């Protein structure tokens, strides 16, 4: 889990994804739509992807992807990101993380 936390703290927005996951792609596009440039770790392309996936599930991600860190904090998966967006709280979170500027 330390590796996941370390990777999640690398940049203002970090997304753990799989190349075959449409929801992960949609979440990435949503965040990019605000002007952010997330770092995306495709688990199915990483040699230690299976270990990272297990760690994400231990954090409470079920399914394991997408898993989103914003501002060095684990935010959650697609449900949490969509909920934040619907409530108008995703953009301020991205601004506070210095992922986007107004």
Automatic annotation (TrEMBL):
Ordered alphabetically, the record's keywords are: Cytoplasm, Redox-active center
Protein name per Swiss-Prot or TrEMBL = Monothiol glutaredoxin-S2
Q: Where in the cell is it found?
A: Cytoplasm
Specify where it is mainly localized. cytoplasm
State the source organism's domain of life: Eukaryota
Q: Identify the SUPFAM superfamilies for this entry.
A: Thioredoxin-like (SSF52833)
What's the source species' lineage? Eukaryota, Viridiplantae, Streptophyta, Embryophyta, Tracheophyta
Q: Name one Pfam family in it.
A: Glutaredoxin
Family listed: Belongs to the glutaredoxin family. CC-type subfamily.
User: Which CDD domains is this protein grouped with?
Assistant: GRX_GRXh_1_2_like
Specify whether Nuclease is a keyword of the entry.
no
């Amino acid at each position: 889990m330390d590796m996941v936390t370390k990777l999640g703290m690398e940049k203002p927005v970090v997304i753990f994804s799989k190349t075959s996951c449409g929801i992960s792609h949609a979440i990435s596009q949503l965040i990019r739509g605000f002007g952010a440039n997330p770092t995306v770790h495709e688990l199915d392309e990483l040699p230690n992807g299976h270990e990272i996936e297990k760690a994400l599930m231990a954090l409470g991600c079920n399914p394991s992807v997408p898993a989103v860190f914003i501002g060095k904090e684990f935010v959650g998966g697609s449900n949490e990101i969509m909920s934040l967006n619907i409530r108008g709280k995703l953009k301020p979170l991205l601004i506070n993380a210095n992922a986007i500027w107004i």
